[in-house]
Amino acid sequence: MREAFTTKNSFLRVFNLKQAIWWSVPTFVLLVTLSFAAEADLSNKRVPAEKLKEIQALKNPFEASPENISKGKVLYQTQATCFTCHGKEGRGDGLAAPGLDPSPRNFTSAGFHSMRTDGELFWVIKKGIPGTAMMPMVGSVITEEEAWLVLLYERSLGRR
Ligand code: HEC
Questions:
Q1: Can you give the pTM of this predicted structure?
Q2: 3-state DSSP helix/strand/coil percent for the chain, to nearest 5?
Q3: Could you give the C-alpha distances from 119 to 37, 42, 58, 66, in angstroms and in order?
Q4: Is 137 in the pocket of ligand 1 (CB under 6 A)?
Q5: Which residue's alpha carbon is at the smallest distance from atom 36 of ligand 1?
Q6: Which residues pair with 138 in a beta bridge?
């Protein structure tokens, strides 16, 4: 009697352990998925509607030469701090990204670039996007000129 009880008990223990291991896999996958929020809808403009035309018409004063793009890249990956959220290569996978909702934009997506003018992106870098982790960067970490250079690097990521 006692023997039967012990066998059953140890059987249960093994079974539960196996089950726990099996369930830990989908649970882990679910948690990782939940911790990465989605990028916000691209069709919503990120600039004030009443200034849209004016903002869209802004032009980058720097040409997209290899020298200017690499100046922008250095800023992006250091002093300008963009990499902490948008990732070193701009894939939206920076160290701070998992906790952010909406997620930082992925600059390697061609669709993103085709839906924004330079002026709109410059505005966002300068003024930030209210209600998101995207802060005003001009005046805090970079100047307007540096923002235009960073934008050249950002644009170059969409052409790869
Ligand atoms: C603290 C995190 C954080 C940092 C640092 C940061 N961003 Fe962002 N950025 C975000 C988030 C989050 C979004 C998405 C907001 C949204 O979709 O509304 C975003 C969106 C953007 C967009 C896309 C806006 C659009 O039109 O959809 C641009 C461009 C951008 N960031 C550029 C930069 C640049 C350049 C830097 C560095 C100078 C930078 N960001 C630094 C979090 C960050």
A1: 0.82
A2: 55, 0, 40
A3: 27, 16, 5, 21
A4: yes
A5: 82
A6: 142
Task: Give the tens place of pLDDT for each residue, 112-152.
Answer: 999 999 999 999 999 999 999 999 999 999 999 999 999 99
DSSP codes joined into one string, 71-117:
HHHHHHHTTT-THHHH-TTSSS--TTGGG-SSPPP-TT-HHHHHT--
Angle between the N-to-C axes of helices 144-158 and 66-77, in degrees from 0 to 180, rounded to the nearest 10: 100
pLDDT one-digit tens code per residue, 45-70: 999 999 999 999 999 999 999 999 99
Tokens of 104: 């930082």
Shortest CA distance to 121 belongs to which of 88, 150, 89? 150
- Reply yes or no on domain 49-158 having CATH 3.40.1000: no
Residue type for position 32: V
Tell me how far the alpha carbon of residue 29 lies from the centroid of ligand 1, in angstroms. Answer: 27
Instruction: Compute the distance from residue 105 Cα to the ligand 1 centre, in Å.
Output: 6
User: 């790869």: which residue's tokens?
Assistant: 160
